[in-house]
Amino acid sequence: MSAYDGRFAAKMVLVFRANSGVCSCRQHCPDLNAGLRLAATTATPLVGINGPSPPCMSWRLSSLRCGMAQASPRLPVYHVAPVQQDWRDGFLYSVNVNGVAAGYLGSVSQAIVWQDGVLRQLNCKNEGSPYAHGYAINAAMQVAGSCYRTGGNYAVVWDAQGNPIRVQDDAVLADTALGINNFGHVVGAAGRIAYVWKGAKVKLIGTLGGTYSTPQDINDKGAIVAASALPGDTAVDAFVYRNGQMKDLNWPWANSYARAVNAHGHIAGWSADTPYTTYAILDNGITITDLGRHSSTMGINNLDQVVGTKTVNGDVRAFIYTHGRVYDLNTLMNTTSDPDWEIHVAYDINDAGVIVGWGILHGSYQPVVMTPLT
Q1: Are 105 and 148 in contact (CB under 8 A)?
Q2: How far apart, in whole angstroms, are the C-alpha atoms of residue 203 and residue 216?
């Protein structure tokens, strides 16, 4: 079998289609009758509520359970309010265990921290950098981000008092800091290569054979999720880096991107078969869950609740995946929230169910905090 055929074999997977109530074998080959010889094991036939589905091939599953439809769960109701009435054109990317969020506010071109209804700016102006972004926050209130100035940008970590610390060593000055765990370990990009920084040396992780890689998140066990170009830079694959080893996640479709990882090592991200057709993915190491077409996952908590964005009939909507189903967050707002809110993207969710992202209110882009009431 050629390496090309091997990639198709790797993409014939058992996928649990969210919202369907049925387990099915979903083939990811351009022609199911092409007669490719696939070196994979035959999976156990699956049984869903509509009867048995045919056997299919799996590259890392031998079976997938699908239960009968359950009673409708009690879903949370969220209160949604602008993070500050007069601060607009921004995003909240990350929320920590205590409900404190970090992001960016375009109206002041600065990184921000939101806590208990109050916004605080983070900046690098003392170093001559007029612009800053905050991308991730941990329990200790450290924020990973970037400062921007003429000629380029550089990675920083703001401490709990708002002081920026450069991510660098004697040889490397990192460009971006995109993720941080509760030990203060940071991941980002230095040049075009993913790195991890633990306060001293900037350790480059490398690639899957291409010329660039970009990490997005790191958990407290040190698992790093990222994406890397493949040889020739013809495609991008999601990967996880653990114990000094990179592992291609081999998600279905031509390109894939890992976005977030929880304490259990479960990974959220997306795959794409064209630049305009994405599929949100939840990967628990055993089962790949496809959350639907034209969707992307952005964040995951330790309950395996996933948030992201989905396009429905041209309309961009934030979603939550919980209790085995995908729900439009715009349908879960309480009656005291402004009915003109349009929540477009949910970036992160903590274990208490607090969700952060951005939306549009009265024609203005605004950072959003969604607080569950039930």
Answers
A1: no
A2: 15
- 152's enclosing H/E stretch is strand 152-158
Cα distance between residue 53 and residue 253, in whole Å: 22
Please write the tens of the pLDDT for every residue from 204-217: 999 999 999 999 99
Summarised one tens digit per residue, pLDDT across range 18-40 is: 544 333 333 333 332 332 222 22
pTM over 0.85? The answer is no
Contact criterion met (CB below 8 Å) for 298 and 268: yes
The answer to whether 226 and 194 have CB atoms below 8 angstroms apart is yes
**What is the C-alpha separation between 4 and 90, in angstroms, rounded?**
43
Specify the length of the chain in residues.
374
Separation in Å, CA 168 to CA 90, 157, 165, 181, 219: 28, 11, 9, 18, 21
96 token code pair:
């920590």
3-state secondary structure of 292: strand
15-53: string of b/e by CB count within 10 Å (b at 16+)? Answer: bbbbeebbbbbbbbeeeeeeebebebeebeebebeeeeb
Cα separation, 67 vs 266, in Å, equals 21
State how far the Cα of 232 lies from the Cα of 228, in Å rounded to an integer: 11
Instruction: Give the residue among 272, 186, 196 at the shortest CA–CA distance from 237.
Output: 272
φ/ψ (deg, to 5) at 32: -65, -15
Specify the residue for token string 């291409």: 210
DSSP strands (E only) in 181-314 = 186-190, 193-197, 202-206, 213-218, 224-229, 236-242, 245-248, 255-261, 267-274, 277-283, 288-293, 295-300, 306-312
Give the SS3 label for residue 258.
strand
Where do we find the tokens 């375009």? 106
User: Which token pair is 326?
Assistant: 């995908």
Comparing 131 with 229, the larger pLDDT belongs to 229
Sign of the torsion angle spanned by Cα atoms 336, 136, 153, 129: positive
Count other Cβ atoms within 10 Å, centred on residue 239: 27
- Residue 85, beta-bridge partner list: none
